[in-house]
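Let us work through a complete example step by step.
Step 1: write down the sequence.
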Amino acid sequence: MKYLLFFYFCLLIGPAIAQSHDIYKPKNILKLEGPMGILNGTLLAVNDSSITVLNHRLPNAEPLVIPYKEINTIKIRKKNNVAKGLWIGMAVGGASGYIITRATYDPENLLVHIMAPKSAVSTGWTIVGIVGGGLLGTLIGSIKVQIPIDRHYPSFAAATEKLQSYTQSK
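Step 2: predict the structure and record it as tokens.
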């Protein structure tokens, strides 16, 4: 019983502790493709005709201001989307596996009922649901949003509002 209370305490307090330590960490992962090559970094700000990026290869260097004329494609995703997708997928998959097994379990004869009781079958399908849901959630969480700019100002201006939602100030 004390382990269960400790688990619930960690479950409820863990996110609060993690949020307090995650204030100044990057909130997005950006991959910028242009004539200068590929740049991996964090999107800090979006201006009228440029973006400000913190280079991941040189984290102590000054942020780079990159004009739209040097941007072909921007690929971006929120930083913890993979982990969030994993946890949400595991929760939904596990619950679905458990509910479906409980609702559809019907042993045809006594031998099946003795060899595979209802609790063992539901536990097995719950684990299958957790693994399958976790894999699917991880796959969905790793998808990046691709924004084509093609060194064209109207494309950049149209993408400005979308990019603004990924900046550090939000």
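Step 3: interpret the result. Strands lie at 28-34, 37-46, 50-55, 64-67, 73-78, 145-148.
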